[in-house]
């Protein structure tokens, strides 16, 4: 019988080394498991919004038998409180407000005066009443359409005794051979770039006003109007480049995903 075959190999790890390695691996697994649970919580959020006020790991300030009990009022009589309704105070308005509604406007706003007469002043006994004053109410109204068609009539005339007629020249227009007035061009640009109203919505609004204009016409009008503004942009650019100091907005802006992607919990 070979004694070397039954004897343990000298290179085999001992039991204590295996136990230490097993304990180390278990500790690493626990650490990784805690990290995984934390990442899952950050990714998917908490399972419930309920807050736990009694933490199991926190010791109590008093022992269960030493906790003070709330004092009960002795012999307190019950009183009935009369129900009441809370009123609302008058809202403070600025000095330039016309009335309590808070409407404010400048002198450039068109105003339409509507006179309302009661039946007493329009009936058969109207002469029995006299008007001693008036009350004014202001309301903000909106018209169905803000577009108007300008009809320019130009007379065709000739001098007496002459045969050649003379036609009055057409009024000046910003865009040659165009149906758009300068007010329409300004309105298209302001609504699109200042109030962020797309052209297709402006086209729908024009159609609702009873005016038929193709969608491509609005696009061409905006393009031609922008070309008219290029000299102003070039002049401003040259003025900026000639300046000794250039004012720049260096406010940092975060772009892209700086960390992990996915929903994050609000703080």
From TrEMBL:
Which InterPro entries did the record assign? Answer: Transposase-related, Transposase_IS66_central, Transposase_TnpC_homeodom
Q: Which residues form a coiled coil?
A: 15-42
Upper lineage is:
Bacteria, Pseudomonadati, Pseudomonadota, Gammaproteobacteria, Oceanospirillales
Full protein name: Uncharacterized protein
| Residues annotated as domain Transposase TnpC homeodomain | 32-88
Name the source's superkingdom.
Bacteria
Q: Which organism is it from?
A: Vreelandella aquamarina
Q: Where is the Transposase IS66 central domain?
A: 178-261
Alphabetized Pfam families for the sequence: DDE_Tnp_IS66 (PF03050), LZ_Tnp_IS66 (PF13007)
Q: Recite the UniProt keywords alphabetically.
A: Coiled coil
Q: Where is this region: Disordered?
A: 54-78
